[in-house]
Automatic annotation (TrEMBL):
Residues spanning the signal sequence: 1-22
Keywords: Signal
Domain YtkA-like stretches: 41-122
Pfam families cross-referenced by the UniProt entry: YtkA
Lineage: Bacteria, Bacillati, Bacillota, Bacilli, Bacillales
Superkingdom of the source species: Bacteria
PROSITE patterns xrefs: PROKAR_LIPOPROTEIN (PS51257)
Protein name as annotated: YtkA-like domain-containing protein
Amino acid sequence: MMKPKKLIALFTIAAMSMIVSCSGNNGESSHMHDGSEHSMEPIHVELSWNPGDVSVNQKVVFEAVVTQGSEAVDDAKAVLFEIVNKNNEEDKQELEGKLSGNGTYKAESILMKEGNYDVTSHVTARTQHSMPTKELTVQP
């Protein structure tokens, strides 16, 4: 039978070996730090649409300009425009934004009913999420 001091010493050596071997990453980047090359400065999303005054059955281009500091963000993981009729929340659209360059993401739609809508751009970029909302009024 092993003496308690030797057993404790053996256990300590085994535990230290496991800790040291598990902490090495062989020069590879850890998944926890994949976004470390990006600043932690918040992303900024400027939401707009064109034309500014929208009528029923008129094509509307929704636009989100994404920046971080003074840099345009062209590598967003997801940009989604959510358009919800304020009088009927079941009347909603979700449009995927496509990069058109210089941090600008766009999507097109036609709104068939007059009324007030909440337009939210959901942007996921550089480990952050931003979702500004603006109200859009569709005229007859």
